[in-house]
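Worked example 3 (structure in, sequence out).
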């Protein structure tokens, strides 16, 4: 594999871990270094770090906070 690709992969812990877990990418990148962007995309999907995944996680957090707030309000109303 090309040295600059290895350097970029080692600089990003998620990419490095993904490469160790998915050794087929090592062979793919060695043969065709132009697939690096596809490799990055696959790693983001694998670790659920894509934009839609982050929005979904944020939405779930907001729903949980809203649920907790509603629970606290209902408990306060019952005590009054």
């Amino acid at each position: 594999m090309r040295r600059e690709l290895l350097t970029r992969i080692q600089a990003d812990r998620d990419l490095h871990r993904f490469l160790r877990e998915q050794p087929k990418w090592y062979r793919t990148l060695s043969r065709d270094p132009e697939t690096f962007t596809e490799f990055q995309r696959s790693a983001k999907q694998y670790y659920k770090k894509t934009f839609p995944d982050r929005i979904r996680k944020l939405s779930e957090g907001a729903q949980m906070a809203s649920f907790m707030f509603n629970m606290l309000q209902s408990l306060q109303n019952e005590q009054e």
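Notes: The helical segments are 3-11, 13-21, 24-31, 36-46, 51-79. The CA atoms of residues 2 and 52 lie 32 Å apart.
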